[in-house]
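Known limitations

Files may contain more than one protein. Parsers should not assume a single record per file. Below, a two-record file is shown to illustrate correct handling: read the sequence, read the C-alpha cell line, then continue until end of file.
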Amino acid sequence: MPEAKGLPLRVEDVYAGYGKLEILHGVSVEANPGELVVIIGPNGSGKSTLLKTIFGFTKIYRGRVIIGDKDVTKVPPNQKPYLGLAYVFQTDNVFPTLTVRENLELSKIVYLARARRGELGEEAARNPEKAFREKLEEVLDMFPRLRERLSQRAATLSGGERQMLAIARALITEPRVMLLDEPTAALSPKAASEVFDTIVRIARSGITVLLVEQNAKKALEIGDRGYILVQGKVAYHGSTREILGHPELGKLYLGLAKS
C-alpha cells in the first residue's frame, strides 16, 4: 500500500452515552498517524461506545473529539467520512444483497467529494473519476479474494471475506483515521489472523488506527499503545509491551495468564 497520511485523533475528557444513560465518564484517548492503538477491557466497559462517540452516534455531554486541528464533536455521522474518518462496524457492515463490486462502489461519492476538494492530491483533483478507478484497483490488489468475487453477492462471502470487504470499502475513501470495532469477532483463527495482518498493514501505511478488540492478547501483540477501559473509565494506558508485561493488569481486566 502506498504511503498514506493520517491525522492525529484526540478524545478529550469525554462524557457520553445514550439519552440520559451516561456510559463514558471522562475518557481521554489519543492516536497518531501510523499508530495502531488498541482499546481493550471487560465486556460492557464502553469500548464500542467510545468508537460510536467518536463517529457521532452517541450524545456527548462534555468533552471534545478532535481530528487533526478540527473539533468534530458536533459534526453528524453522515459528514464524518468527508473529513477522513472511517468506521468499520462489528456487524451489519456490508450490504448482503449487493455484489462485492457494488459494495465497494458505494464509497465513490465520498472519494469523489474529497478528490474534488483537492484533499487527495493534484492528480485526483484533475480527474476524480480516473483516480477513483485507480484507487479501486489498488484496494483490490490488497484483497485478491475480493477481486475473484466481484460479481458475487456479499451474502455468499465467508465471515472473514465480509470483514475484508468492509475494510476495503472503508479504505477506498482514503481515510486519515480508521475506527475498527471488533473486526475478528466470530471469525475462524485463520480468518482472524488475516484480518489482524491487514490492520497492521493499514497502520504502517500511515493511517491512524483505533482498534476495539475482544482478543486482548493478540490486539496487544500487534498494537503500539493500549487503553484499558473499565466501567466507562480509562483504568490504564501505556505501550502494549507494558500492558502485556504488567504482573496484574492481565489477570484483573483481560483474562490473561500471568506472564
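...continuing to the second record:
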Amino acid sequence: MHARFAKMRSMLFSMLLFLLAIGVILGGAAVFTNGVEWMGRRLGISDGAIGSILAGVATALPETLIPVIAIFFGDSKAEADIGTGAILGAPLMLSTLTIPLMAGFLLLLARMRKRADHFTLDYHAVRLDLNFFLPAYAVAFLVAFMPIPALRYAAAAGLFLMYLWYVKIHLASGEVSETELEPLYFARKVGHPATALVTAQAITGLGMLIGGAHLFVHAVGDVASGMGVSPLILSLLVAPIATELPEKMNSLLWIYQKKDTLAVGNITGAMVFQGTFPVSVGLLGTAWNLDQASLISVTLPIVATVFLLALIHTTGKWQPRMLVLPAFLYAGYIVYLFVH
C-alpha cells in the first residue's frame, strides 16, 4: 500500500512538472517573440521579415528546442525518442488537425452569418509553402529507409539550405505585414523602449524556453514511465499540441477577422520550418531509425499536403468542407496508436 501511494505521489509530481514546463515554454515563447519583433524594428528590418521570418521562427522555437535539448543534451534512448516525437508531431498536427480546425471554424462563422463560407487567399503563396514542405518532408521519409550517416548528414544540410532558399524567396516577394507590434512586455507604457530593454527581454525569453524545454524532456520521460507509455508516442502527440496549437489560435482569430491569407500563411509557413530545420536536428543527432508508428506519422502529413495541393490544382481554390477531411487522418492515427 505504501509503495502504491509513493508511486501515485511521484506520478502526480511528474504531471505537475509537466504542466509547469508547458507553462514556462509558452510564456518564454511570448516574451521572446515580442522581444525579437522589437529587435527587428531596431535593426530596420521590414514588417514582412519581422512577421513572417523573425516571429515565425521565434514562435517555432519551443517545438525546436525540445528536440535539441532531448537529442544533444540527453543521455538516454528515452530522451532521444522524446526529441524525435517532438520533431514528427508538429507537421502531423499542423497538416491534419490545425488546418481542419481552421476550416471548421470558418464554416461555423458562416453558419452564424459572421462571414462568407469560402476562403479569400493568395493561392500563389499557399502553393509556394506547400511545394517547399512536400519535398522536404519526403526527404525525411526516404532517408529513414537507409539512414547511413553520410546520407543523413547530406540530407540535413540540404534541408537547412532549402529553408534558407525559402526565406530568400519570401523576402524577395515584397510582402509587407500590416500588423502593429504589441508594446514591449518589459516596458508596456513606453512607445519607444530602449534597445537594452529589448535585448534583455529577448534573452530572458530565450532562457525561459531553454529551461522549459529541459524540464519538459525530463517530465515527459517520468510521465511516460509512470503510465507505461512510449516516450516517443507521448511526445509525438503532446508536445505539438502543448506548444504549437496555442500559437496557431492566431489563425482562428484571423479567420474571424477575415484575414484568410494571414491565417493560412501562419500554418503553412510553420509547416515549412518544421519540415526542414527540426528534421535536420533529428538527422544529425539521431540514427533516424523510425519505427512503424513514426513512419506513419511522417506519411500522413505528406498525404494531407498532396490533397491540399490537389484541391488548388483541380478547383483553383480551397473549399472549407473539403479541408475538414484531413482530420480523419489524425483521428485514425490516434486510434492506431491506442490499438497497437
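Parsers that stop after the first record will miss the second one. For reference, the second record is described as follows. The chain is about 80% helix and 0% strand.
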